[in-house]
Amino acid sequence: MSSMRAFTSLATPARRALLSSRNMRSIATYTTHSNATPDASNSTTAQKTHFGFRDVLESEKEQLVGKVFSNVAEKYDVMNDAMSGGVHRLWKDHFIRSMAPGPGTTLLDVAGGTGDIAMRFLDYCKNIHNDSSATVKLVDINPQMLKVGEQRFQSTPYANTNQVSFLVQNAEHLDDIPDESVDVYTIAFGIRNCTHVDRVVKEAYRVLKPGGRFMCLEFSQVENPVISKIYDFYSFDVIPALGQMIANDRESYKYLVESIRQFPPQPAFAKIIRDAGFSTVGKGWEDLTFGVAAIHSGFKL
């Protein structure tokens, strides 16, 4: 049984109809829209994309996603712990261990938000290598999320050092990041919110030095039918309720769950990475917790 069928067995008729019409198009949405040039001035010809299970104009999505993350910024870390039971911390720890950065590594952490990956990166370099020369530039399109990250770093040994910097920037257009300027590019739980996933990956390729590494940690597709059924029920029924209870915001967390289901499954995303020019080892990804999340990786050779 697929994850789609598993969830529809629990859903209302209205939700089943919505899921069957939206999820069956999730991969096609990326392949159809990612290379198109939108014309927002003409609503009859302007390209559309998805915002959760809704179809919206490409020109509207960035604003809608921005509103979601402005709403959740202050409670983002608390909700991550509540939604995952703290498992997201283990995923991120493993993500950094898989990176295994060496002394002096330059990291660009895109959609870095509240700084979870950036902090772990610097801690790893300090604790493993006793290194204070590694640097991270933390990039996010949302100023509110970035502000939370900046405030968090103020109480760390990295405050007021040249090891960490912050930049408001669109992942699809890293205009202030030079070509071939960073050793590692990371994006964790952020790429699915971008309008054109392929453009994000191509920008990653541009800014990485030869030999540099692209790493993405993202929610993915669960294949095990039993786990999938439980996961879908938890995602669509429990997480929005937690969002309402903890953050007083059900709709934002409803979108975040829907955005996971719209993201390409692991093989399709791995192909996007290879099509951007990256070389991958093996299949190109590592499933975490039955495929609830996955680490994708590629090298610029």
From TrEMBL:
Any one GO MF annotation of this record: 2-methoxy-6-polyprenyl-1,4-benzoquinol methyltransferase activity
Record-listed E.C. numbers: 2.1.1.201
Compartment(s): Mitochondrion inner membrane
Domain of life: Eukaryota
Predominant place of localization: mitochondrion
Catalytic activity: a 2-methoxy-6-(all-trans-polyprenyl)benzene-1,4-diol + S-adenosyl-L-methionine = a 5-methoxy-2-methyl-3-(all-trans-polyprenyl)benzene-1,4-diol + S-adenosyl-L-homocysteine + H(+)
Residues that, per the record, bind S-adenosyl-L-methionine: 114, 140, 170-171
Top-level EC class as recorded in UniProt: transferase
GO cellular component: extrinsic component of mitochondrial inner membrane
Keywords: Membrane, Methyltransferase, Mitochondrion, Mitochondrion inner membrane, S-adenosyl-L-methionine, Transferase, Ubiquinone biosynthesis
Bilayer topology annotation: Peripheral membrane protein
Keyword Oxidoreductase belongs to the record: no
Assembly mode: Component of a multi-subunit COQ enzyme complex, composed of at least COQ3, COQ4, COQ5, COQ6, COQ7 and COQ9.
Family membership: Belongs to the class I-like SAM-binding methyltransferase superfamily. MenG/UbiE family.
Biological role: Methyltransferase required for the conversion of 2-polyprenyl-6-methoxy-1,4-benzoquinol (DDMQH2) to 2-polyprenyl-3-methyl-6-methoxy-1,4-benzoquinol (DMQH2).
Name recorded for this polypeptide: 2-methoxy-6-polyprenyl-1,4-benzoquinol methylase, mitochondrial
